[in-house]
Amino acid sequence: MTIKIGDKVPDGTLTEFIETASEGCSLGPNAFKVSELVKGKKIALFAVPGAFTPTCSAQHLPGYIELESQLKAKGIDEIWCVAVNDAFVMGAWGREQNAQGKVRMFADGSATWTKAMGLDLDLVDKGLGVRSRRYSAVLDDGVVTLLNLEEGGGYEVSDANTLLSQLG
After folding, report:
1. What is the Cα Rg of the chain in Å?
2. pLDDT score of 51
3. Is 64 exposed, middle or buried (0-12, 13-18, 19+ CB in 10 A)?
4. Nearest-CA neighbor of 62 among 166, 126, 155?
5. What is the DSSP letter of 150?
6. Nearest in space to 168 (alpha carbons), one of 135, 138, 136, 134
7. No. of helices (H) and no. of strands (E), the chain
8. Total domains in the fold of the chain
9. Alpha-carbon span 74 to 91, nearest angstrom
10. Which residues are catalytic?
C-alpha cells in the first residue's frame, strides 16, 4: 500500500555519511531511526531513483540545494534526499553537489524503508535492482502533509519549485 497524505511514515533506519565527527556521530556511515529524526520537525523530503543519475544530478538535487533558504523560510526544518544507495555513495554524491549543511543525504541501502512506504520501483530489468519512485513530500512530526508522486520516469511534480509553491 502506498503512503498517502495524513499517514504517519513508517519507522525504519536510514544511514547518512557523516563528514565531520561530533558528539553522538562518528565519522562515516551513521544509522538513524526515522521515528527519532522526524520528532517535532517539519521535513521536506524528496526521493530519487539513484544517486549520480542524470535527472537526479542535473535537476532534482540541485533544485533543493538552491532553494534551501527559501524552503526554510517557509517553516521547513530539514531537507532530506533519500535514495536506495549506500551511505558511501550518498555521501560522495552530496560532496560532489555541495549539499553539506543544506540537504541531508540519506541512504536506504536495501530499500527497506522505501518498501514500507509503498514507494519502491522495480528496475531489475534495467540492471538497477529495486529503487525508489521519484517523489517529494512534507512530513510534519512524521505525518505526510504533502505528497507529489511522479509517474513512470517523470520529473514534473517533485521538484523544489513545486514544493516551495505548495508551502504557500
Report:
1. 15
2. 87
3. buried
4. 155
5. P
6. 138
7. 7, 9
8. 1
9. 27
10. 56
Whole-number pLDDT of residue 26 = 65
Neighbours of 146 (CB within 10 A): 16
Q: Does 2 fall in a domain? A: no
- Looking at residue 27, its pLDDT comes to 66
Please give the pLDDT value at position 71: 98
Instruction: Judge whether 6 lies within some domain.
Output: no
Distance of CA 91 to the CA centre of its chain: 13
The residues near 110 (Cβ < 8 Å, ≥ 6 apart) are 84
pLDDT of residue 46: 96
C-alpha cell at 99: 549539499
User: Which of these, 55, 38, 9, 49, lies nearest to 104 by C-alpha position?
Assistant: 38
Residue 154 gets the label, from left (phi > 0), alpha (psi -120 to 50) or beta, of beta
Domain that holds residue 80: 13-166
Strands 78-83 and 104-107: parallel
Kindly report the CATH number assigned to the domain that includes residue 47: 3.40.30.10
**This prediction's pTM:** 0.92
Q: How many CB atoms lie within 10 A of CB 17?
A: 21
